Amino acid sequence: MEEEVLLSGWLEKRLPVLRDTWEPHWCVLRQSSLACYEAERECSVPKLELRVLKWAAFREEDAFGDAQLHRKTRPCGFVLDLGTDVPHAHQRFVHFDAATEAQLQRWLEAFQALQLPASESPQASDATPSPKGYAISVRKRTFLYRKHTYKLRKNRPRNQA
What we know:
By secondary structure, the protein is α+β, with helices and mostly antiparallel strands. The chain has helices at about 65-70, 100-115, 130-155; strands at about 5-15, 20-30, 35, 50, 55, 75-80, 95.
């Protein structure tokens, strides 16, 4: 039996850290997960299926992940925390952009409607590091991103005199 769809729509998902690009995905939120598809057809196999533990809009002061980096450029964005059960630490936080304030509100309300266990609810965030700790991490990631892209642009052979 298929689960009830709480909300579906187009969202832009941020790709890995060193490739600061965003791709559109058709996202379908159900009680157990958020599935991301390449097209609006849900009959295909999802490109990505996420088990949501916590969420936060980029504009919130205690938003986690790289939300602070994207706050100005993506004001209608939100971040999902998938917990520590992910294969790699850099996959823990997934960033999305809803494009409009109305769509952002719809997604945040749909996440509120999820019935998460009490230990995993956003209010019980004892295991979440403080925003101050994330600020250091954000600065370091920004530095690494800029350093990496600079090397790619400067990967030309130097003039030999």
